[in-house]
Amino acid sequence: EPKQKVNRQQRQTISSVPPGGTTTGGLPLQSPQSSSPTSKTLYRDASMLELFCQEVESNSARLNEGLQAIKSNPNAAVELNSLIQAAHTIKGAAQIVQIEAAVKISRAIEYWLIAVQSGKIIPNAEGVELLQPGIEMLLDITQVPETELANWAAQHDAELDNLVATIYAIPTKKEDGDVGASLTDNLANKQITSLNLPAANE
Known about the structure:
8 helices; 2 strands; 55% helix; disordered C terminus
């Protein structure tokens, strides 16, 4: 079946997803809790699915480049806002087409980057290595036919949960430099609030 051409307006709709709500084009971002990988009523327009894949591919490249720079030199000047926006854009695109696995992965990566930006996490090679399997899984999702997404999600459910839990378990640091609570606890206590992102369970 030939792919539908994605026009400029559709690309702007996803790339300009603001933190926390609807796209600038008015498309609702359904709550991840309300979606199910086995739902029969998912909104998966072919052109939007194609756009989702394009956004994952382009923004994953941005993430990989930035994270590789951090891995090579944790003190390197990396434009974190650009990386945060890349993860956020993937999350918004995944919410529109209701691919929950991609929402979970991109959200976890986004929060890690925000924690780095706010000084709650000191970036290092070990932390980056915990994120890279998530980016690889995002790219894997783009290769799954729409009709197989539910089966793929079921087969990779445990792997996905473990991957995301590992990222959220990364410890943050206290003001005195000692090891602090996990990323999850910081989110729950609203210690990470950059960009006005939704609460940890949204």
